[in-house]
């Protein structure tokens, strides 16, 4: 029952120090969601064995090149590999035009459908849901319209005790009903209370992606209790003036937000290429929020262990 | 006195088998010329320590993504790195619009000038010259307008014998005149014949880039005697029907052209991702033109040794 994030690119604008532009894949029970798509994302996917045919939704935070220049190549490769399934894309306005002009000049005609969803970067709202997650926008503030994404696993089903199935001779429809929390009437007419044959569902997990953005303390309400928070940490706090000017965040600011929102873990990234070594960024974040970790290419992160809600 | 080609990407459309989309750098006496720019070219440049501030001309064969999707990222990174020098771009029509639409949606404003030169893909003509090379177009035939590029080193100066400088007390202007092939009148009035104090210039070298294209036997005249010929070898000849249909070439066809043109060496590339192992392509080419080599990422090639023209 996976809920796992893989970092494909951890750097900010300039690829450097063996770090690449922003891209991540969230795996929720083997459904993959791509978040941002900097140049070279398709190569990173190959390197980390990301199964791209399991991706049906791509979430783009904003149209700066280090978050989107890999998208046209990825979509084209998917086409050459015979993709037929629709791809849904969520982003601030302009992504359709941005992609279509590239396809036009390269004379690419996709054999599958792109379904564009324009995200209002000023609002927090439900963007998408499927059988396993709901995805909400997070209003960010950057030099161009930018949105974050909040992934919330859906309420999961109760866990039926395997012995109950044989003991009461439950049918498949009965098992499904029990998983939904219903009582069940067995062959001899007895009504079996749901709680007597089930365990509570595993808790639902959550992941928030906040990049690129300046420090927005008001996000603490929206991010309250999120299991894993990715927040950009472009600079050390001694460059806070530069962060304010370019509408980025410092490691300390991200940690402060993580602490104030009471998240499980802070995942750092979008490092300025000026930092060859990242440990000073990590130390700075941990000074305010100890459960901070550095996102690194190929790293897999989950601060959402499957715990029963007791 | 370098004349050396570095392969940054050797594969065709889909990055696979640790091979990347097309890109090459030609180094002529430390001036660098970039030829094609598939996705990830800037990362390959970092990997192979290509000094990108020495690039002032970029040559794009055609606008298919595997030859151009890395360009916007490279130009943006150059901008972030503070580039101020003009960049000249040579390509079939559409490159300006292709790039400008991407800059528009990403809100990138370059601090340096892009100078676009539209290449007529139907003609062989001089596109560019500087102090060391002349670059000509090579008309190719592909599914969209596509041009090759022929780099010819300029006629080099005669080599003055160092002993002559002291023996005759030559001034700097006199040395320059001698290098240009002139006679010189020395202090005591004697006229010194040029041939008596110089050696012939090193021979000029040449490189031709032909990708993407179907097999064009008529190119043999244009490519006559070229030192190093890069010609696409997308398929083995058992797939010649597919090559004809997609307007690509087979290894055998490239070798036949290399042989008929009497080039020094054939450099292969633009391999279909279906070929995990490339040795069958090499064997096929060598069956018709023994001096064929496989282009590989990071490989450096020069079949133009500095020989004196005796």
Whole-number tally of structural domains of chain A:
2
Uncertain segments of chain A = none
CATH class designation of the largest domain in chain A: Alpha Beta
Strand content bin of chain A: 25-35%
Q: What characteristic shape of chain A results from the CA principal axes?
A: globular
Structural class of chain A: alpha/beta
Largest interface: A-B, 35 and 35 residues
Total helices of chain A: the number is 11
Strand order in the largest sheet of chain A? 6-5-4-3-2-1-18
- Topology pattern of chain A, helix = H, strand = E: EEEHEHHEHEEEEEHHEEHEEHEHHEHEE
**CATH architecture assignment name of the largest domain in chain A:** 4-Layer Sandwich
Oligomer description: homodimer
Helix content range of chain A: 25-40%
Structure summary, number of beta strands of chain A: 18
Structural commentary:
The structure is a homodimer of 310-residue chains. The first copy, chain A, has 310 residues and is α/β, with parallel strands linked by helices. Chain A has helices at 41-47, 65-68, 71-80, 95-106, 162-168, 172-179, 194-197, 219-222, 240-246, 251-261, 279-288; strands at 3-9, 23-28, 31-37, 55-59, 87-91, 114-118, 126-129, 133-139, 147-153, 159-160, 184-185, 191-192, 198-199, 206-210, 228-232, 265-269, 292-294, 300-301. The radius of gyration of chain A is 22 Å and the shape is globular.
């Amino acid at each position: 029952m996976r809920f796992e994030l893989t970092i494909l690119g951890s750097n900010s604008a300039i690829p450097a120090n063996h770090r690449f532009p922003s891209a991540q894949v969230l795996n929720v029970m083997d459904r993959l969601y791509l978040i941002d798509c900097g140049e070279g994302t398709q190569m990173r996917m190959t390197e980390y064995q990301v199964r791209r045919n399991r991706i049906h939704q791509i979430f783009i935070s904003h149209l700066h090149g280090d978050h989107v220049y890999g998208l046209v190549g990825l979509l084209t490769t998917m086409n050459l590999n015979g993709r037929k399934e629709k791809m849904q894309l969520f982003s601030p306005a302009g992504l359709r035009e941005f992609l279509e002009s590239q396809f036009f000049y390269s004379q690419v005609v996709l054999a599958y459908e792109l379904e564009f969803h324009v995200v209002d970067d000023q609002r927090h709202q439900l963007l998408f849901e499927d059988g396993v997650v709901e995805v909400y926008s997070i209003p960010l503030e950057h030099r161009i319209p930018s949105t974050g994404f909040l992934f919330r696993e859906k309420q999961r089903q109760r866990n039926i005790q395997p012995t109950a199935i044989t003991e009461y001779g439950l049918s498949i429809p009965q098992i499904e009903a029990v998983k939904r929390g219903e009582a069940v009437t067995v062959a001899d007419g007895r009504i079996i209370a749901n709680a007597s044959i089930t365990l509570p569902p595993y808790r639902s997990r959550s992941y928030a992606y906040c990049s690129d953005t300046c420090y927005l303390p008001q996000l603490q309400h929206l991010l309250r209790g999120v299991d894993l928070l990715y927040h950009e940490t472009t600079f050390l706090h001694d460059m806070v003036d530069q962060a304010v000017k370019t509408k980025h965040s410092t490691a300390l600011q991200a940690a402060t937000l993580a602490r104030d929102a009471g998240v499980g873990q802070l995942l750092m990234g979008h490092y300025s290429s000026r930092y060859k070594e990242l440990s000073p960024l990590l130390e700075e974040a941990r000074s305010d929020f100890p459960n901070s970790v550095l996102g690194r290419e190929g790293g897999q992160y989950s601060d959402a262990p499957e715990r029963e809600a007791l």
